Every structure is written in structure tokens, then in C-alpha cells.
UniProtKB/TrEMBL annotation:
Cofactor section: Mg(2+)
Protein known as: Molybdopterin molybdenumtransferase
Record GO cellular component, one term: cytosol
Gene Ontology terms for molecular function: metal ion binding; molybdopterin molybdotransferase activity
Family according to the record: Belongs to the MoeA family.
NCBIfam families (UniProt xref): Glp_gephyrin (NF045515)
EC numbers for this chain: 2.10.1.1
Lineage: Bacteria, Pseudomonadati, Pseudomonadota, Alphaproteobacteria, Hyphomicrobiales
Amino acid sequence: MSLMPLEEAYRRVLAGAEPVPRTERVGLRQASGRVLAEAVIAQRTQPGFNASAMDGYAIKAANAEAGSYLNVIGESAAGKGFSGRIEDSQTVRIFTGAPVPEGADTVLIQENAELVEASTIKVTEAPARGAHIRLAGVDFAEGQTLLSAGTLLSPGSVALAASGGHPELVVRAKPRVVVLSTGDELVLPGEPVGPHQIVASNTFGIAALCEAAGAEVIANELAPDDEAAIDAVFDQALGAKADIFVTIGGASVGDHDLVGKVFAEKGVDLDFWKVAMRPGKPFMAGARDGMRIAGLPGNPASSMVAATLFLAPLIRRLAGLADRPLFADGFLAEAMPANGSRADLVRSVIRPGPDGPLLSPLPRQDSSLLSVYAEADALLLRPVNANPAEAGEPCRFVPLS
């Protein structure tokens, strides 16, 4: 099977992917970052009364010429309004957010009033009629659509839903993901590490990436290089109706790389295997009974790069989130050599430049080095067969934050 061009692989991973049809009801404290499945309709009018926008005095504008005197007959505060009515030559002390008393049509700000006696003020500057009053319904009215289905819920939109009278919201369910790391050499963090073993770092990095992209990781498993063990986790994913089954390792060519063999025996429709990119070449994509398959390479940086380019966008699509451009535009901070027959994703750091982001490659690029990946801000793309490039030339990159 020939190597799949990077951008073609990206298109094929996303081809036919639609948001999962499941929905769930969540409380407002769990709603931020979720995708709304049903429109939010206002259950009330906001504000529900004419409210003062400033601290001052509620007045009748016709009785408040500069130099006039008004008798203070009470007070209106937020949550405790004045229950009477203002008549000519009367006023009520009022505070921001408080209900405007019946009979008043204007708020005189306190800076334009002089307290001459305990219950008398002098108007020093007359306001325009209607000044400093927020009319009932100026924010929204009962029955109004506040948020449309498909909205990505931000903190502001959660606050709007709360103000509209909704303690819970119906959101799209998160895509369900099962992650399987394979290899006899793997042990969990904190366990004794034998002379031929390594810690299963990818298990946790890929799960974190899935959750950051909008998924629910329903299982995060380790399996030895054993067909029966891999087969059992595959069946577990099918039985749990996972939307995506992610494997880490076992996707290269070798006697101990069994994932591809299990996929074939399980009837996985393999779309492609191996992408013309470095790192991350041994990535595979397929499906079985509606469950998407993403086979990631075992090397730590290779796994994270492939997951960033292909798995995270797939999760976002299934979660109902808007697609993001695969690449952003920037400029080289230093000269780069010619590139070969695979797209090179160079772990790099970003700094501001006069015309846009400047990309500086990190000095070590070995695909096994997690410390380099963790330090990187971006994956700088060197296209297939790219010519040497000078500092300052345009480039494309994948942001990592």
C-alpha cells in the first residue's frame, strides 16, 4: 500500500463524519464548552422591570429643571424596590439595578444632585427625559430565541441561558472513545520498570488529547503483544458502542505488530495505512460497523503528531464542533534545508514577528523524544520535496495550543 499524502489523509479521515446523534441534558455548571443540541428560548423577560443604570434619584423629568428642589420620599435598591408612586416635586433615592418606581421616567445621577437637607435635593443639572433607565426587555423578551442549536457554549452563553431561566441545557453527547496501547514492554506510571520495559506515556497523552478535543474516553487500556488481548479490547469497544477505537503501537511492520492483523480478522474496512509524513508515517484509518478506527504509531512524538493532525479533527467533527483550518500561516525564523519525499512536521517554538508568527525549529527532532514535543508550540510543515528556504520566507504550521 503506497503512502497517502498528508492532506489527502486528513480529508479521508473526515470524509462522511457527522456529529453523533446522541444528546444529553446537563446542568449549567457542566455546560461550558459543550455544543447545544436544542435552541434555548427565553422563559422570562430581562430585565423584567425598568431598572436604573446609575446611582442617583428617580424623578419626573418635567419637574426637574436645574435649580429645582425635590422631596426625597424613599429608596429603591436592587432586590428591594420602592412600592409607592412618585408625584410632582418628589424623588426616590435609587441605586444601579434597582426598579424604577411608578411615576418616575428618568434617573438623575447623584453627581447632578445636591443634598440640601436630610430629605431634600437640589437639581444642579437637568437630565434628558428617560436618561439612565434600562427599559424592561431591553436585553431579551420572553419567547425570544437566545441560543441556536449548534452553538458552542461559552461562559457568556451559559450566563445568558441562566438569565433566560434555564437550569439545564440539552447538548450533543461527547463522542465515546476507547484507547488501547499495545506492547509487552509497557508498564503503568508508578509501577516498577524492568530492564526491557518503558512507561506507557502515550496512553495518557492520547487520552488527554481526545478529551481536550471534546471526547469522552470510556476506556483507556493496556494490552501485551497478544492477539487475544487486543481482540478482547476491540470487542469491548464494539460492545460499548464506541464512536472511535484508538490503538497506539502495533501499526508498523514487524512480527510483534499485531494490530493490523487483528483488524483484518475483525473485518475492519481499512481506508489507508501509512501517510507520507515524518513523524507519524504508520498511521492507519478505517471503520467497522460505524465505529471509526485510528491506529497510531508507538513512538511518543509520532503518536502525538498523528493524533493532532487526524484524531483531534475527527473528534471535533463528531462532537459537532466547527472544523479548524489544518494549518496556520507564519514565517521561518531561520533557514531550512531541502526536504525529501515525506512531509516533515518539525517540532518548533513560536515567537512574535513583525509580520506574523516566527517559527524556530527545536534542535532535536527524534520521534521518541517526548520532552521535545512537550516544549513545542507548533508543528512546522516542510512540504514534500520542498526546496531550501531562507529565514523570513512564509511557512505553514499546526498550532499545538
